[in-house]
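Reply to dn_fold:

You asked what the input looked like. This is it:
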Amino acid sequence: MLAESGSVYLEACESYRKQTWRNRCRILTANGPMDLRVPVVHDGTRLVRDIRIDWSTPWLRQCEYAIDSAYYGSPFFVYYRDELFGLLDRQPETLWEMNLNVIDFFCRKIGIAPQILPTADFELHPEGDCRDLFSPKRPCASAVRPYWQVFREKFGFVPGLSVMDLLFNEGPESLSYLIPARSSGR
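and this is what came back:
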């Protein structure tokens, strides 16, 4: 079942910024939180939609190994692993394409269907701007309800992780987890 969703604009016309969530995500491993990074080619390209992925190193295999190690013990990982890894193994040329594919994957699996639209022009402060709301350098600002996590006995609940943590641990209940947070303003 898909929840009704509206249009979501993704900024396609901004200059690529380093050290943002645009090329990384955070997972919880047996050693604690870990950032997975997609290396990009630094060739003078500035627009975020044109940034190319650097496939010259085995980073993808390392990321897949880290995800396997972190989530093998989660209740729902086995149901999503092959499709997610198949999506990544396609090795898209641009970070934009990979991000759109990953966003679509997680939205479908959680049960939401936003209409994702790229922006046509850069606006400095558009209405509803969330571009700088989340940063790997700042802790999650809002309160987050705990859910079951694989390494909870070792670390307690760890907020600020990728949506893959929620999906692999909560599976079909992920949407039920997100709806109260959305409706209560969290």
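The chain has one domain: 7-183.
Hope that clears it up.
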